[in-house]
What we know:
- By secondary structure, the chain is mainly α.
- Helices cover 76% and strands 0% of the residues.
- It folds into two domains: 154 residues; 52 residues.
- The relative contact order is 0.13.
Amino acid sequence: MPKNQDTYISPNILRKETKWEDLFFYQKTRTLYQITFVFVKRFLKSGDRTVDQMVQAARSGKQNIAEGLADGVTSTEMELKLLNVARSSIKELREDYQDYIISRQLSLWEKSHSRYERMLNFCRFHNDWKDYEPFAMLWSDEEIANIALTLCHMVDKMMTSYMKNLEEKFVTEGGIRERMTAARIGYRNNQKSEIERLRSELAVANQRISELESIIQSLKAKQIGN
């Protein structure tokens, strides 16, 4: 049976899943986890509570991004919540690296530092752990800590921008409840339109039947008269 050209098409209730592996801030958090793992093994004593805290914070940042984007298919609210947890974890990690630098009287590489621009460009254009891994066992604690701090800042900035866009999209498009409501209302409205169309077609058909019956009666009358 051919489809009517006005056949109702239901709007998408589920959002298209974002591939978190392709997002730069996720890639950088994955690198942060690996570089933190190396850092604590090389420069912190076994049994130091900071070891578990830093590794868990780095892992939480990475995992909550993945879980948040997966949940975003059905719930923008849950996605935002988990992304905010991820940001908090990255901020916690940033504090640990800052504390390490300050407590060991190391240099914090700010704009005035001779290696600041090179470090910034390296972190900006390199997201994957494979780009950092060859140097991870060669860099000093000061080098790794400053690179990790830079990655933390970049991740936070990227995630802030991503979440802002997500919030704006939520305001304009709504969440799954709004999309389901819109789908139901659209379906009901389409059903009403379809019923009205069929009634109109039925009225035309009935009119045509009456006309044909009149013609038949007229033809019968003529035959009788002959």
